[in-house]
Design a protein that fits this description.
four-stranded mixed beta sheet; 404 residues; 2 domains; seven-stranded mixed beta sheet; 13 helices; 47% helix; 13 strands; alpha/beta
Length: 404
Amino acid sequence: MVTAGLITLAVIALLWISFCALALYIQQHHGRLEPDPDAGADLARPSVSVVIPARDEEEAIEATVRSLLSQPGVELELIVVDDGSTDRTGELLDAIAAEEPRLRVLHDPALPAGWLGKTNAMHQGAALARNDLILFCDADILHRPGILPAAVDELERAGLDFLTLAATYRWETVLEHAFGAVGMLTILVALGSTRYEDPERPDDAVGIGTFMLVRREAYEAIGGHAQVRASVVDDGDFGKLVKRSGYRVTALFAPRGLEVRMFRGNRAALFGPTKNLYATLGGEPIGAILVALVFTALICAGPIAALSGTLAGRWSLAGAGLGLYLTQYALFFGLRSWQRFHPLKLLGFPLFALILWLSLTRAMYFQRTRGTVLWRGREVKLGPLSSTPMTEDGGPTYGPPTSP
């Protein structure tokens, strides 16, 4: 019995080492974009429209907006869509807009049936944009000086139609660290193993909500966010849609150009993944549960073995479990170049299993019993969890959505 347990722990350790070795390789060799305030200085200043969907973002929205308004080397138009905020988000935006003519604020757009608030906000904001380049970004991103002109320069230099950037992720509480350790590892591997330039793999692309720069011509041609109106992973599905439509796309890391705190506090980390998790795991209850069970076993096997071995006096099992746990910790710690975390709080990474099961259970409840997705206190009734085009006739639609 003990021998079987030791073999199982050894296999799990090898799986983690292999997976993290791949992640470390990707972290070191995947393309990066550095902020460059002088990018394109010898050319005409490019014009960029920035669209930000914001709902209950009073803690971060002012820093995000001001970090964009201070970007050098670009002619900037900033459109923030206040998506029915219940806090001071709208008030803060109006105060900035009163002193800054480059900022326009659209408050409380109507939410048509079949749309998520975020996709609706981005679609309506894009319809107001006047420039040939449109940047979509989340409302809690800190943009370091020079990252926007550097991105525009890269888009033009590489002949791209769509460029998405991954930020440095900052974690504060224990549960934030737990999500970051495991969640960011999987995202890192997904980003680095995607074959963006292979036309034979039309779905091999990603979009990251932190930063998505797209040419207006391409955006309108594919139908804008109407095509992913009901997607709970809209950024990822949007990136796939752009490539599937024949446009050139890529994703780069920008650890010194962008920073985000994905969740603000333990409660947010515990329930924040609800919107994306169920769809990410496939949208089918049995499959989602099986994947969650596998993840739980891989994450918690070390601590469980260490505890059960100690209680039973089986010290070889306890030692092997502790060894697996410390190995995992060391591997997560090695990924710190694109994460900001506290080494002691990182020790709580097995709590990712708690986040996984609570968020999954919550997502399944709303989807299976009420046919809705819950996001920031709002329930939205959706159709199938699909990334296929969502227009009524299967063709592209552009412009402000209207209620059916």
